[in-house]
Amino acid sequence: MKYAAIDIGTNTLRLLIAEADSSGRLSPLVYRRAITRLGGSYTESAGIDPMSAQRTFAALEEFKRVIDEVGVESVEAAATSVVRRAGNKKWFLSEIEKKTGISVSVISGEEEARLSLLGVLSVLNDPRGCDTPRGRRLVMDIGGGSTEFIATDDGGIRGVWSMEMGVVHLTETHLKSDPPQDAEIKALRGEIGAVMGELKAGMANAGVNPADYSMASGAVFVGTAGTVTTLAALDQGLEVYDRTRINNATLSRPRVERLYRYLVGLTLRERQTVLNLEKGREDLIISGALIAIAAMDEFGFEEIKVSDAGLLEGIVIKKNSGRVAPSQREVEAKARKAEV
């Protein structure tokens, strides 16, 4: 069966059309993305900016044209961080349905993380990153409006934390100069560091020891979404973006630091000419790279395993098979039942 999944993110819209078999294995047919900066100029009082919304409507109309051309069994669309928070989200969602006929679900940060994990696990091929319950993983999904962290243990989710640390907010708040000044970078690092502290405190409060999610403890750090996949493409010097080369790539901490140092010294115009740096990401890559570096340092990781798959794939897998990543409680209950 053919399914279409749409991810309406704070920075990027993505479309996946895929065939799925009874085992949940996906065969991608169409993959499209458009950076519309939906969260650009967002304010708590006004919500989604009208111009940002119009860019998004136009991209979704194009996605609908592609979907109709290919023909699918169903269309599932999910909106995430900025739409979750927007006071004018009812207007925004109503306009999408009027213009495209697509009904959009606004999903929670936890649901976003569960679906993203399902997608991530569908492509990882190392023993601790496959669908078989083994080992610990800390999965990081850097988004435009928020960053999700998912701690897994033996295939179950120990905890999900959706942090208000998105690259659009961070960039618009701190990076005013071109290229950024040292004081701006210092303030940006300060906000990221504070959120990392909140994350570790939240983990501890949930009964999850952050020290268990480090390289020293044998955990695997996995990154998904645009920042990490862009850094992996730059690391490999890809002239044409190739998802098969990105999935399961490994980024070392020193290499991420070198890429950041190179990019932060360039102007926006110069970054636009960098090989494989997607147009519309030239300003956001600085904040994203610093989030990745800070997370590696906070949890003691020297490398990131990269996944190009995430929320879109998770939506299709769930629709096709009804599966979602189990919680740790569900995994423990299953184990107790097996012992009886």
Overview of this protein structure:
The chain has helices spanning 50-70, 81-85, 89-100, 109-121, 167-174, 182-205, 226-236, 243-246, 253-264, 268-272, 284-299, 311-321, 328-339; strands spanning 2-8, 12-20, 26-35, 74-79, 104-106, 136-142, 147-153, 156-163, 220-224, 250-252, 303-307. It is α/β, with parallel strands linked by helices. It folds into two domains: 2-107, Nucleotidyltransferase, domain 5; 125-312, Nucleotidyltransferase, domain 5. The strands form two sheets. Strands 8-7-6-9-11-10 form a six-stranded mixed β-sheet, with helices on both faces. The protein starts with a strand and ends with a helix.
How many DSSP H or I helices? 13
Helix content: 40-55%
The number of domains is: 2
Question: Given the C-alpha coordinates, what overall shape results?
Answer: globular
The CATH topology assignment of the largest domain is: Nucleotidyltransferase, domain 5
Structural class: alpha/beta
What is the alpha-carbon Rg in Å?
19 Å
If you average the pLDDT, what whole number results?
88
Q: Largest beta sheet: what is the strand line-up?
A: 8-7-6-9-11-10
At the first level of CATH, the class of the largest domain is Alpha Beta
Element string (H = helix, E = strand) = EEEHEHHEHEEEHHEHHEHHHEHH
Strand coverage percent: 15-25%
CATH architecture of the largest domain: 2-Layer Sandwich
Q: Report on the biggest sheet.
A: 6 strands, mixed
Report the strand count: 11
Task: Note the gap between the termini.
Answer: 39 Å
Low-confidence stretches: 127-133, 325-340
The CATH superfamily title of the largest domain: Exopolyphosphatase. Domain 2
